[in-house]
Each structure stands twice: as structure tokens, then as C-alpha cells.
Specification:
Elements (H helix, E strand, L loop, with lengths): L1 E5 L3 H13 L4 E5 L11 E4 L1 H10 L1 H10 L1 E4 L1 E5 L5 E2 L3 E6 H14 L3 E3 L15 E4 L6 H5 L1 H4 L1 E5 L3 E7 L6 E8 L2 E9 L5 E7 L1 H6 L7 H11 L1 H4 L4 E2 L14 E5 L3 E2 L2 E3 L14 H18 L3 H31 L9 H9 L7 H5 L10 H4 L4 H29 L1
Length: 412
């Protein structure tokens, strides 16, 4: 089969590798408009469930991803003027560029043709392809070419957000909320290697405009944000990857869905097909799992349309709960002002439960006495118990990792 992946992100590269593993005679081309090694973004996050899935499909690249990832422990919630709350838990993060390098090398080692600095303008140039996979991101060119068939729907989120980095290494996954003259502004931060963290700044459009970000240039914006978050950055600077732009690249999240995911021999995958709000950290996971599902269905069915149909149905079903959780999470952050006056543990509990989509009225009524809080949050006031919990998490994680590796060895 002759396959073209329009887009050299995680989904397209991983699909190329998986298809080659299933049949080395597939002719696969991955087309990416950016130069090799160039990407916008900082770190990506994921959890054990994704690593399990990667090991089940390609242990070789999974091991490289695991070895290149860093692990963050605990989650901390800081609100100006309140005691720090701890939510526990752990996850993995890694440099997005490193992830792409691993996947690109794996695809090329298996025989895929990965072409950088090639823009997809029209699909006429791929007229001889049996299959074209549109995995070219949120603003997919391929999806736009066939918009009448895919019927995309784009809903723009309310809040403004900004992807930045910092050399302040946040060992716990950190939420920090600061009050300004124009309202609350906050960041989500996590380390993705030993010296750099992702730092996503977010606020309401009223706060964004009230603080003058609509008029400030990049350097002025960074300087202002460094002052706002001075107490959390410990003297470290914020890093902006897009310094060549005249204005800061503030974004409003785009919730993308499509009425149909395939047309003729073209199928959508990753952000071209769907998006989930960044506050649940599922984008990379869903892109890679799309690739896994599509590879499986293409291997199972000789007929493309049957493969596409099964792929779309399976992925839509899987996405339902995550998309609901993502929308609830986005809405919680869009209504931070409804919860921010709660005392620290209650606010942290509300933050932890944001995916469930409780209304502001329900949240406001959660004024239980401390003994009624779930144990996993109440114990956060005791450092010894927090250390004990980290030890338990660490032991469980090591056992899980050993079982995963043993299972991968047995499958060879």
C-alpha cells in the first residue's frame, strides 16, 4: 500500500512506524512543513496508560520514550495569600522535540520516507497514493480542502492562554494563582527535563485586556508576567520561543470536531480530527492512540472504507468521556472566580474534581468541616504522610514498570 501522512507530528510519525512493522513492503511518506528538529511547544505530559499502550505496539520506541521522559511527583496548588495545598499523584513529561526525534528516527529506520520542509498545498501531488492520512494539526490544510465532506466544527474557548518555558524546575506539577488589579491570572507548570519547565499562563479575556496584553509587545509582556509570578519563579526568567513576532502569541483554545472523519481515501487523525483542552493533558496521548487504532483497522480490513468506519467508530467512543472531561475542565478554569475564595484545601479539591463538571452553585456549597474532606486531601497538611504516600506511589510505579517490561519481553 502507498501511504502519505500529511503532517510530521506524533500521530503521523507513529502511524508510519506501526504500518512498517506490520508490513515492511508498505511505501510510506511522511510530509512535514517544518525543518527537521523544529517544533513549537515545550514539554508534553502523559501517564502510565500511554506507556503501556506504546509497549504493546512497539517496545523499541516505547523504551526510548520512557528513558527520555522525566517523572514529576505530587501536584501543588498555590493561591496568593493561602496555604499551599498538595494533591498527590505523579506523571511523566518530556521535551516535545525529543519525542518527535525518537518517532522520526524510528519511522526512518523502519524504511519510511520522512520529508521535511515540504508544504501540502493540494492533494493532486499525491494522486497515486492509496491512502492519505490528514494529521496536520489544528489548522489542517487537508481538512480545509475537503471541509464540505468532513464538516468541521470549531468552538472557541473563552480564556486566553500562552505557552512559555522557564529554567525554574518545577518538580511537582504546579498551579499558581495570582491576583492582579484586573483579576486573577495563573499558570500550569511542570518540568520536562532536568533544567526546563513548561509554563502555561492563562486568564480571562477581561483580565487579559485589563492588564494591557492586547497592546504589549513580547518583551514587555514577559517582563510583566515575571513580576506577577515573581514569588513562584524564584528569580528565573520566562522563555518565549516566538520572539520574532511583534505581538505575544496569546491563544484561545479551539475545540475541534468533525461530522465525518474520512472521505474517499483521505482520513483524519490527531488534532485534525479532534482536540481536547490542554488542561487535561491528553493531546499527545490521543494522537498516538489514534495512530494505533488506525494501524490496527488498516491491518484487519482489506477494504479502506471498512477500516475507516471501524476506526472512526472506535475512536469516537473512546473520546466521548475524555472530551466531556476536557470541556468541564476548561469551563472550571473559565469560572475560577466562583471558587477562588474557598479555603486552600477545598479549592484544591475543587480543582482536582473539575473534570466532573459540578456547577458553581454545587462547588460553592462544599463547605464541609475538615474531617469530611476525602482522606487523600486532608492528609496533605502532614508532611510525614505526604512522604509516605510518595513512597507508596513509587513502589507501585516500579512494580508496574517491571511488569510492563516483562510483558514486552514475552511478546517478542
Amino acid at each position: 500500500m502507498k501511504i502519505v501522512c500529511a503532517g510530521g507530528g506524533p500521530a503521523g510519525l507513529y502511524l508510519a512506524a506501526l504500518m512498517k512493522l506490520r508490513n515492511k513492503d508498505h511505501h510510506i511518506t511522511v510530509v512535514e512543513r517544518k525543518p527537521a528538529g523544529v517544533t513549537y511547544g515545550w514539554g508534553v505530559v502523559f501517564w502510565d496508560d500511554l506507556l503501556d499502550n506504546l509497549y504493546n505496539n512497539d517496545p523499541e520506541s516505547a523504551r526510548e520514550i520512557r528513558d527520555s521522559a522525566t517523572r514529576w511527583e505530587d501536584q501543588e496548588v498555590h493561591v496568593r495569600g493561602k496555604k499551599t495545598a498538595h494533591l498527590g499523584g505523579y506523571g511523566f513529561s518530556m521535551d516535545r522535540k525529543r519525542l518527535l526525534d525518537i518517532l522520526a528516527k524510528r519511522a526512518m529506520d523502519l524504511g519510511a520516507d520522512v520529508q521535511f520542509e515540504r508544504e501540502v498545498v493540494d492533494l493532486v501531488e499525491f494522486a497515486d497514493a492509496d491512502l492519505i492520512v490528514a494529521c496536520d494539526g489544528v489548522r489542517s490544510r487537508v481538512r480545509q480542502l475537503y471541509a464540505d465532506h468532513f464538516q468541521p466544527n470549531v468552538e472557541v474557548g473563552r480564556n486566553k492562554y500562552l505557552w512559555l518555558g522557564t529554567h525554574k524546575v518545577f518538580d511537582p506539577f504546579t498551579f499558581a494563582f495570582e491576583k492582579t488589579s484586573a483579576g486573577w491570572i495563573w499558570f500550569h507548570a511542570y518540568r520536562f527535563n532536568t533544567e526546563t519547565s513548561t509554563c502555561i499562563v492563562e486568564c480571562s479575556p477581561e483580565t487579559w485586556e485589563g492588564l494591557g496584553f492586547d497592546a504589549l509587545g513580547p518583551d514587555e509582556s514577559i517582563e510583566f508576567l515575571e513580576k506577577v509570578f515573581e514569588s513562584r519563579l524564584d528569580g528565573h526568567s520566562l522563555l518565549n520561543q516566538r520572539r520574532s513576532f511583534d505581538k505575544m502569541q496569546w491563544l484561545s483554545f479551539e475545540h475541534i470536531s468533525n461530522k465525518k472523519w474520512y472521505h474517499n481515501n483521505v482520513v483524519l487523525m490527531g488534532d485534525a480530527a479532534h482536540t481536547t483542552h490542554f488542561t487535561i493533558g491528553a493531546g499527545t496521548k490521543l494522537a498516538l492512540e489514534d495512530a494505533i487504532a488506525l494501524a490496527e483497522k488498516l491491518h484487519e480490513h482489506e477494504d479502506l472504507q471498512a477500516a475507516f468506519k471501524d476506526y472512526e467508530e472506535e475512536r469516537r467512543t473512546t473520546l466521548l468521556m475524555l472530551q466531556r472531561a476536557a470541556r468541564n475542565s476548561a469551563k472550571w478554569f473559565e469560572n475560577v472566580q466562583c471558587y477562588i475564595d474557598q479555603e486552600s484545601i477545598q479549592f484544591a479539591y475543587s480543582l482536582a474534581k473539575r473534570r466532573e463538571g459540578k456547577t458553581a452553585l454545587e462547588e460553592a456549597s462544599w463547605r464541609y468541616p475538615l474531617w469530611r474532606y476525602p482522606l487523600r486531601l486532608a492528609i496533605q497538611t502532614t508532611a510525614v504522610l505526604r512522604r509516605l504516600r510518595r513512597w507508596v506511589y513509587s513502589a507501585k510505579r516500579e512494580l508496574h514498570s517491571a511488569r510492563r517490561e516483562l510483558h514486552a519481553v514475552r511478546r517478542r
